[in-house]
Structure formats: C-alpha cells, structure tokens
Amino acid sequence: ISKRLAIVPEDATVRETEKILMSKVPKEDWIKSHHRMIFWGRYQCMTRAPKCETCPLLEICQEGQKRIK
Ligand code: SF4
Known about the structure:
By secondary structure, the protein is mainly α. It has a single domain (14-67), classed as Helix-hairpin-Helix base-excision DNA repair enzymes (C-terminal) (Endonuclease Iii, domain 2). The protein contains three helices and no strands. It has helices at residues 14-24, 30-43, 62-67. The longest helix has 14 residues, at 30-43. The model has no long low-confidence stretch (mean pLDDT 96). Iron/sulfur cluster is lined by residues 4-5, 44-45, 50-52, 55, 57-58, 61, 63-64.
C-alpha cells in the first residue's frame, strides 16, 4: 500500500519501508495506521484487483490513475 501510494520508493525493502513509515506517522498512531493499511489492502487496494474506479484516494494515487486509463 505504501508503495502504491508512493509513500515509500518502489524498491524499498521491508525494513526501509518500516523506517520511512515510522518517521512519517506519529508514534501514537502506529498501531491504528498499521491496521488501516492492512484493511485498505484487504478490501480496497487488493494486490491483483484494486478498486481504483471507486477509490477515494484516486486523485492522489498515480498507480490508480495509470490503472484506469
Ligand atoms: S487508486 Fe487504486 S491503486 Fe491507488 S490506492 Fe486506490 S485502489 Fe489502490
């Protein structure tokens, strides 16, 4: 999710992704953010068939904009 939304570089490792997210999200929101991203990936932005057409983040998501062209 963080790669699709370009929050972290496409080639970031798991550890690098974790470090970047920890630096961007306030510590008190880490657990909530973790669960939000899991559920986002499970119900909206699935690996094989993300629901870009109905996504509220489409306007800021380059990946989604590429997919609906
Ligand atoms: S627009 Fe598509 S790729 Fe981007 S976050 Fe939404 S569902 Fe995921």
